[in-house]
User: Fold Pyrophosphate--fructose 6-phosphate 1-phosphotransferase from Candidatus Olsenella pullistercoris.
Amino acid sequence: MSVERCVLVGQSGGPTAAINSSLAGVISAGIEAGARVVGMRYGIQGFLDGRMVELDRAFADPADLDLLRETPSSWLGSCRYKLPTPSEDESVYQRLFDRFEEIGADAVLYIGGNDSMDTIAKLGAYGRDHGSDISFVGVPKTIDNDLVGTDHTPGYGSAARFVATAMREITCDANVYDLKSVTFVEIMGRDAGWLAASAALANPDIVLLPEAPLDVDALLGRVAELLAVKNTVMVGVSEGVRTADGRLVCELAAASGADVDEFGHLATLSGAGRWLAAVAKERLGCKTRSVELSTLQRCASYVASEVDLSEAFELGRAGVRAALAGETTKMCALERVSNDPYEVRTALVDVLSVANRVKGVPRAWISADGMGVTDELLAYVRPLVDWIPIELAALD
Amino acid sequence: MSVERCVLVGQSGGPTAAINSSLAGVISAGIEAGARVVGMRYGIQGFLDGRMVELDRAFADPADLDLLRETPSSWLGSCRYKLPTPSEDESVYQRLFDRFEEIGADAVLYIGGNDSMDTIAKLGAYGRDHGSDISFVGVPKTIDNDLVGTDHTPGYGSAARFVATAMREITCDANVYDLKSVTFVEIMGRDAGWLAASAALANPDIVLLPEAPLDVDALLGRVAELLAVKNTVMVGVSEGVRTADGRLVCELAAASGADVDEFGHLATLSGAGRWLAAVAKERLGCKTRSVELSTLQRCASYVASEVDLSEAFELGRAGVRAALAGETTKMCALERVSNDPYEVRTALVDVLSVANRVKGVPRAWISADGMGVTDELLAYVRPLVDWIPIELAALD
Assistant:
């Protein structure tokens, strides 16, 4: 008598354009293995409240699975829930493992970023310590691309494609009038500059990342030099850009009453781009503006990278296969085999080596003046974004 | 001996995803007619400074013309220049007509919105009064869709497609957490709500247009009702939404010291969406956020409507044909023949009947409570946007 196996899957953290593609991969491999596939609603948190959905039944039609693959955001719902350690609160582990047993879970897959890998690490360790034979495997996703242990993360390529495309469109837009102007495009990424760096694919004049301390005077000097020889200066700015003393630029105005007086009502403007636009206007006396790419960076699926969606799907599948083969406390990762032609393979890494660490852009991939990126970085990003701008030569 | 004819063309006003498609249409028809095609750099203003480009030569390769068709923003550059009346300043007319004669222009095409049609009207009238046989024809473009005399304007369909797509993506994004939230998506259109109305294609809960006075209490009441039965409330807000006394919502906070005190630092927040998000948070006590779609609305070519690009191209061609046939002081317009199947034809209208008038959304196409649009409006917009969301059913 064969016993049906059961795969439990959840999504956690911020949504991306590719996280549902990983979910589709999990469902696809689960169905292929003849397993029951159960989804947690709103991650671990909803699951603790008993909220589940039968995914193999909901996606029995392959057309629905294709649609799920291309649907942005977290279809199961998400949560931002940091699992306490067992010593802080063991009861939550007892409740979770009771539920795992109740539904007969053989494998628990969690699709998410850093906190999700922390969840997998904790559940895996607790299970091992308490004789559970459930497998816990993490499937990475984050537009921030800041997870260690993997060449890059699903979600990043699509977000980067949106950012590069938007930077190109906004550059076209900024060039229309015959006047000097500086445009700051603010890009997500509080701690890592990977996403802001992807703007470099659209060839802006300056890119500012959190990894390179910002010298505001040097920046304005560079902008002034550029304005002397061209009309339009484009600057990609990570929301997490900081000055040498470690202060976030977006907090500079609020931090000091003097700044507020000097630049008017700036204290209430939160964005680094807005603040820089106001300062540049004040000091350089030219037209400036700031565009925040905002929420669309993580959900713009109509400009999703097919490479990204495909890798996200394959990592979901690899996660199920590994978990059902008994691997646990692991994260599915991508290893880059070559850049040209672009080729990756999936791998398994110890999730403990991933959780609670952040991978920033290496300083060697940032130009010496801290205001641009190197060809190495572009070569790294380009195949993930899967986008080559074809452009008319600009006039003049 | 045949004399080569000459078509002069300029672009004016804000850029759109389709204005270069009209330019491509002008070049294409000009080349077809064996004419020389000369482009004004930065509109009438750059042209007055003698800035021109030979377009038939620059676009001799049809592949470049195809690329131009899909390139967002104004490739020739633009200006915001309101031509004075001849009685205010005749010298500018003398300079312009001297230049027209100098290059041997037979036809002057101007691609733009309301101000551009005003320019065509003035130049046409001046030419007629002074015995010139140059033809002046306007080719409409504006994402605002607020020109009279035409069923709709090129640029609107693509901007509306971006808005509807973004509204759908942001709705997916807003649904991820298991909590009550209200998201305001702020959409361009200071005087006409056409663009904001297009958000209705993505089925938000509420749409607020400048044409329907906003009652803030009624809005918050409706939001509260919705929050009682669902988690996520989505509101599309035109930046030009006004209260019954005609005040712009985005100016409400700044207008009154009391508002500033009551809601903190609101005086410096310019957007209607931001202000409503702050008020809703204060009064309803739930999570709120505001997303400004910003510049991408007018330049996001990757989500351009093919119907829009195609109509923009045809209007450019029709403009050249009409002008070379001796028509003057006209605007090329679109007449809708039928909705299903969607069919339009080009027409010529007197540009004087267009200039300096604004076409808003008819009150009959706005729902009785002023917080949504009717099926008639959706039927009007749908074929222009050329976009049908295919979506998975949401869970719960």
Summary: Chain B touches chain A through 51 residues (CB under 8 Å). Confidence is low (pLDDT under 50) at residues 256-269 of chain B.
